[in-house]
Every structure is written in C-alpha cells, then in structure tokens.
Amino acid sequence: MKTLLKRTLLVSAFAVQALAASAAHAFDVGIVAFQMSSETHARVANAAAEAARAKGWTVTQLNAEGSLPKLAEQLDTLVNKKVDAIVIAMGKPVETDAQLQAAKEKGIPVVGVMSGASPHMLFDVEVNEYATGAQSVLYLLGKMGYQGNILSARFDGNSGTRIRGKMLDAVLTENTAVKDLAKFSMARTQSWRDDVRNGMQALFLRHQGQFKGVWASFDGQAYVIDDLLQSQGMKKGDITLVSVDGGPETYRRIADPNSLITATMMIPFEQLGASAIDSIDRIVVKKEPKEKVASGPYLFMDSVLVDASNVQKFLQPAAK
C-alpha cells in the first residue's frame, strides 16, 4: 500500500513539474517595426503586440529606426534567441533575405505586414496595393475632370508606396489630358519630413499656379504638403490633395475647412497587425494548414476611400 502511495505521489509530482514547465514557456513572438517614428509602422506593431499579449504570449518588440543594418541585426537577434515566431511591420524582404532564410531554417515562422512577399515567410498581410494605388489616382483625376497638371510625392523605398507610384504612372498613360509636371522621390527615411518639405517646396515654387492636384504616396507626406500649401495662403478647394493610409489626423484634416487634404485610401493598419498574430495562432499554435489562412504569398484585406462624404463615420470612433 505504501509503495502504491509513493508511486502515486511520484507520478503526481512529475505531472505537476510537467505542467509547470509547460506553463513556464509562454509562446514568444518577436515584433519588428522598420521605423516606429512613422505612425503607420507604429500602429501595426503596437496592434500586433497588444493582440499577442491578449493571448498571454511573451512579446519582444523592436524598432529598426529606419536603418536596414539595424533591421538585419534585430532579425539576427530574434533568430538566435529562437523565438517561436516573428512579425515584421513594413520590412524589407529582399534586403534581409539572409535573415529570413535563417529563420526558416531554424523553424521560426515569419509573417510580414505591408512588407512584400518572401519565399522564406509564411505570407505578407496587406491590402492590394495595386487596387489601392489605382483608386487613389482615379479619385484625384475625377475631381480634376480628367484634365490638368499634377505634382507627385513618391517613396520607392517601400514596396507598397512604390507600387502606388507605379499605378499613378499606369493610370496617367491612359489619361493623357493629365500630366505629372514633376515628381519628388523621398530618399532619406530617417529625416523624411525635412526631405519632403524641402523637395515639395522646391516644386511648388517652380510650378506655382500650374497644377490642379497633388498626389502623395502616403499620408505623412500629405501632412507636410498640406502645411506648406496652407502657409502659402491656399485654401480647401484650390487644389485636390489625395494620399493613402488613413488615421485620426488624416480624417481631422479632411473634415477641416482650412486643410487641403481631400481624400485618402484608408488602410486598416490595426487590423493588419492583429491579423498577423491571429494567423500565427491558427497556423503555428493550433496547427491549421497554412492554405486555410492564405492561399498564396499574400493575405489581403480591403482599403476604403475616405473623403468629405463619409469622413464623419471615421471621426466618430476617435472622438469617443
């Protein structure tokens, strides 16, 4: 009887130890944002971190501060740490191919958000940038009556904004009554606001009175452009200013009678970040087949046009 009791106690003790060991290892996810000073990068990364913590996961959140070497270094750190999964907000799959390959070889699943595809990642969660870019341009041209000149602010350093710029060019080839007088390409990611301010100021001075619209590849550029145009005495309706991203500040400006921002294509950044975590939970934790979550290298979500006709609907949540 005593022997049976001892065995029972030993089995119970081992069971408790096993449970304790299992509980001690919470699922560990690394979340890297390319540049947290960019509102959209921060929105994705913070939403992903919040969703992960809500599941009881351990979160290692990093900021590459717009530096490719730092991004690569941080990915190396997460791979060497052997985290259970990695989420990259606005990453650079081509430039960090070696790090992504190392993660795959060590069995660490990686999900990108608005980063572009990689054979070493599960997939990238994003909106369809081709459709989003085209719709933003067509809205701008529609407000201009499909004739007149525009100026454009671009950024080729990110796959999403680069695609939007290419869609601008594609639409213009079929609408030859509209001409892009001059394009500014943002280069310095770490001081991008000054870069945009200086570059667009030069274009405005050179082409004063010659353009009816301005297209910006993302809302942050549009804020700088809006402030510049307002400082020059321009008022809402003088030109059409359209961009892409969406967010409380953009909606405020669309509703503001003094702002020149006319519309934006709203990208649901918080939903993208949360979806990346949900996808990892389904595939890695719950062992669902990847094909049930995404059938290819992208998991698409919808973007929405926001202008004066519907901006109040988007302002309401921010006002609560």
From TrEMBL:
One of its GO terms (cellular component) is cell envelope. GO terms for molecular function: carbohydrate binding. It is found in: Cell envelope. Residues 32-287 form the Periplasmic binding protein domain. Keywords: Signal. It holds the Pfam family Peripla_BP_4. Residues 1-26 form the signal peptide. It comes from the Bacteria. PANTHER family: D-ALLOSE-BINDING PERIPLASMIC PROTEIN-RELATED (PTHR46847:SF1). Belongs to the bacterial solute-binding protein 2 family. This is Periplasmic binding protein domain-containing protein. It comes from Achromobacter kerstersii.
